[in-house]
Amino acid sequence: MMTWTAVLPALVAALLLTSWLIRRRGRPALRVALAANGLLLGAGLVLLVVAALAEPSSAVSLSTTPAPAAVAATTNGSALIGAAIAVAGSSIGAAIAVAYTGSAALAAMSERPELFGRAMVIVGLAEGIAIYGLIVSIILIGKA
């Protein structure tokens, strides 16, 4: 179930190696890192499409009507993929929003420190995007 955790140390090592290479070699190493990221993104998209289009192995039968378990398994997988996309998209959107609003809030507070409360409210509203994605994913998982 948790086989991805075995790959986690390799990912951390690859990240550290990439940052070291970029500091040492400059632009050529950055191009190699971007090419590797592009290949990984393409492979991930291919796996996503294969997982979305694949039928469960229990769905293959001689009858023309699918078994209820096969229909439930297909629905469950689609709901989980949808929940993952909801969390990932909302988290990325919230990160971008917090980056922009946070930097603007710090710039405003450096000139007028009394704007702290208003600035934090704006940054908190940007963080709410991630909470909405989490709520959508909980609803999708509950329906699965």
Core attributes:
mainly alpha; flat; single chain; about 0% strand; 4 helices; about 140 residues
What's the Cα radius of gyration? 22 Å
Estimated share of beta-strand residues = under 5%
Query: Number of helix segments?
Result: 4
N-end to C-end Cα span: 18 Å
Judged by helices, strands and strand pairing, the structural class is mainly alpha
| Low-pLDDT windows of residues | none
Tell me the total number of β-strands.
0
Describe what you observe in this structure:
There is one protein chain. By secondary structure, the chain is mainly α. Helix content is 81%, strand content 0%. The chain contains four helices and no strands. The chain has helices spanning 8-25, 27-53, 68-111, 116-143. α1 runs antiparallel to α2 (27-53) and α3 runs antiparallel to α4 (116-143).
Summary, kept brief:
The chain is mainly α and 144 residues long. It has helices at 8-25, 27-53, 68-111, 116-143.
List the helices and strands and how they pair.
Blueprint: H1 8-25, H2 27-53, H3 68-111, H4 116-143
